[in-house]
Amino acid sequence: MNADPIIVETTRRIFQDLGDPQTINNTDNTKWRVPLWNALVEAGLTLAWCSEESGGAGASMADGFAIQRVVGEFATPIPLAETLLAGWLLDQARIKAPPGPMTVVPVNDRSHINLTDAGILNGIVERVPFARETEHLVALSNSSDGPKIAMVQRVACGIAPGQNLAGEPRDRVSFNAVKPIHMSSPSTPFNPIRLKLMGAVMRTVQMTGAIETMLNMCIAYTQERVAFGRPIAKFQVIQHNLAVMGGEFAAALAATGAAEGAIMRDPSFGDEVVMNVASAKIRVGEAANEASAIAHQLHGAIGFTQEHILHRFSHRLWSWRDEYDSEANWAVLLGKAVAARGPDEMWPNITAA
What we know:
353 residues, alpha+beta, Butyryl-CoA Dehydrogenase, subunit A, domain 3, 3 domains, four-stranded mixed beta sheet, four-stranded antiparallel beta sheet, 11 helices, 51% helix
């Protein structure tokens, strides 16, 4: 299933008009956020993954992933991707999503949110994206009655500010006897790995979008930059680096597309989804590292300045690749999944992908 081109074009046009990276980089305030967010809300993009019954747009999975890729293309520091994911999680429990910005509390092996029998949340989670800039947080909590999806107000939580390499909020959130404003069990069997898989795909999609923009920036710059009487794009070594970067983008695009397709084919998040998402997170993370290195080499010293927008993409790539687990952890998970199928299934698994 392909994304609706109207949705993709609408999203891209809004960001071009109100979220241009160079314009944002040149400003010393955040006044641009309000008109940008309002335009996204009016277009129905913030709650695209919520059903119409829950107040959303009822868009397809492909549409939501395409929106997230545009977020990566512009590297805009707003929680649109997180709000989409939060809306999807709320929809699993038929909870109506609020109109404002939201974020999802990441799931990992080091921190857990527990729900008491009295309906009270307790726990501490590190590096929650945009926690202090959202109005609501959505969490998957543990309870004696199985997993529960809970929505809480930001003001009810204790928040210690933090940030990633790109300067985006990654906050420490304390749930100290917090009462959810809405809470329900998922309507279908649900476990933390599903949320982790969706979060991982979200970041791979964003990284793929950012890599594409960096590639386009490099192509344009090497055609404009003149050395020894001709554009540096004419030099063989530059052409080689651009080709390598293009290959990394192509690999990222293929891996991300396979992960998206697996999720759309299997809403139950079976073995095929796990293997494709793990492969995508690993491969796109590697592509992000290689593409960032080449982009900074091609731009030279100017690419390291605060005034140039290259850092807005490379810093986010370096940050996103470690969120929802690193390549190393996903590689372990992928290896275990392949080993569990036995040696006779290894080649059929590779060729089927």
